[in-house]
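To: structure desk
From: M.T.
Subject: fold request, one chain
Message: Could you run this one when you get a chance? Sequence is below, nothing fancy, just the single chain.
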Amino acid sequence: MNNLILLLTIFLSLTVKAQERFTIAGQVKDNKNTSLAYVSYVIENEMTHKILKGGITDSLGTFKVSDMNSGKYSIKISMVGYHDEVYHLEVVRDSSLQIALSPRSNQLETVTITKGHKQPIVQKSDRVVMNVANSVLAAGNNVYDLLKMAPAVSVSVDGIEVLGKGSVLVILNGKILPNASIKDLLESIPSDQIDRIEVITNPSVKYDAQATSVIEIYTKNTLSTDSWGGNISLNAAQGKKFNSGGNLGLFFNKNKLSVNLSGGYANNGYLEVGGFDRSVNKGKDEIGKVKLDKDLSGKIKAMNLSSQLGYQLTDKQKIGFDFSLMDVDIAVDGKMDSRLNQYKPESEIYNPIFMGVDMTTKFNSVNLLYDFKLDDLGSSFDVSGNYTSYQNRQDQTFLPDEDKENEIFNGIKANYDILTGMFNYRKMFSKTNSLELGLKYANTKNNSHQTKVTSSDSTEENLLLGYKENVLALYANYNIEVTDFFKLQLGVRGENTSYKVRDSRDSSYWNLFPKVRLDFTVSPDYSTALYYTSGINRPNYDLLVPYTRYFDTYSGQEGNPELNPEFSNIIGWSHRYKNYSLSLEYEHIRDAISNQISYDEDKLFYMSKVVNFSKRELLGINLSVPFKIGNFWQSYNTIGIYRQLNNIPDPFSQLNVRKRNTYPNLKTNNIFSLGKDWDMDLSAFYRGEILNGMNWSEDISNVSLGIRKQLLSKKGFMKIDVSDIFLGQVQRWGSDFIPIRFTARSRNDTRRVRLTIGYKFGKPINDNKKSIKDINKEERNRLGL
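Reply: Done. Structure tokens follow.
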């Protein structure tokens, strides 16, 4: 009995000891025993290497941290102008430290405005961050070029995919870009304006439910110091066509006011060579072939302008305003040779056709933001409002040399007006326990108009089209670190959608989209995560509004107002060992959206139409292998293997047919430091043949190389780069779906040599010495505290 009482006493004393909390206090002084105010400190758990606490000292140089468990910790003390100090401490009782910092020099005359060196590509648990600012990648490219280099991202004629998934939300400074003209808009933004790109492979419920993955693009922002400056760059490129462009960015920071202004202009030549081959059918019998070759050229003029204004009302409140304008004009014309060969009776119709296409895309956006920091733990709420205007105009002309009755004039105009309001609240119960709540309302109005004139009947057809959509969304997301080993994220998003297509149906539906993520930290080197997420992909206006686009006089594409959204469920398992990562993911999509065909046997006209199939499945394995050799070579490599299964209806029998294929997706990004202010980037990717419903796209590849020389104390640079080194961008896609077969091919003028020169300038507004408080405020911002 006595032994039992003794054991219980020991157990209770150990339990009390384990639950006991301690306080760490300290004071920071210089080598002259003078207290240093506003010094940054960070406390890290030496076992898990996790940062637990952080802050700055008070005006007397003291700090105090309570509620600490027993254990081994390291405390890093840092301040601009002084050497960093790291203290190792085993906490078993309340502790007090006397810390001395030694100055780097006797006097700090000026503060140089520089950005800290960042790794070009950083792998995190749920995303990959591509740091663009001041890197060799930033020189000369546009944002569309950057996405071709970004890890986990595939860019092709089929659109933008992340880890094989097509439901990608592309967001620029918090504004969602429309999928219908995403390529034109991204090509209009020079990469000199970009700070970083974050590819989020497992987004939380804070993002719209239509996003199975998110690409966040952030433009540069000003530093926190009182300063002014900017950058300018010019480029010229020669392929089969001449391209040129320029970019200018300016910033001003004074006291609580921050202003950014940037703009860019490009005047690029356009070249497209290709065509298609297609069988001609009567029922299921092939009676002939159509062969069309095209040779088009023209100009693409792209302009963008953006401004950001921020004002710090108090230490905890700030307001922001930003404005974006993008304008893309595309003028293309050329010749198409159309041949129709019939087998019985044997005949051939040859008809050269003049084709002209004029396209204009405009995107304007205004955004207002109010942000309130509630406490030092990071609790906050923000309110934002956005108005976006999106316009797309296309004019098509087909003028056959011999068949004047089949002349076609087709004009399409689409206008978007989008109003969005958002409220987000974040409550930090502790550094490892938080709750996020949010509300979003989006109102979309689409007004579309089509004018079509055909010479065969000399009639003009005017169609007034469009739709309205309202989406009300609420979300809740809870994060908690249950133990040092286990973290849990639970989220749910509810969305109510109502829309009406003009002269068609009304629809309203309510859905809940749950998300769960479990993270396990097995050791400092290895962690693993399990997750489940659900989402929706709503068809955009380009697919929904029932106007017709012509590819030529024998084929076209039309919208489908009866199109339903598709719903996805994803289960994933990811692993990280040091800097390596491996993920396995399965996606199931019901009511999958994909192309279907209809066929007018009398006119031999082939029409592509997007419809809902029964389901699509995708199984993917992705491996990331980064490595670094010395200080001169950093490489980030991704290997993906995907297995597709599509259940699609035969266009004639309407019976379901199962189509499968397996394809690889390989990508490598390499940055070389060559010494003496020389550096180089080398990027390459390869993607195998894929299925898109009943259609397929051939394998594609790309290799690009750039060499940069930094000049004038790294304020200027000159870069030469070559894109699509070997083949240029050659793409083939089509269908071998019996009984109708077709193959399309396209080669664009993407292979070119480009020269870019740039210069950055700026300085502090006040050249006198900064106070210790100002310097340490900058250091605190740099550390993200």
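Reply (cont.): The first strand starts at residue 22 and ends at 30. Let me know if you need anything else for the meeting.
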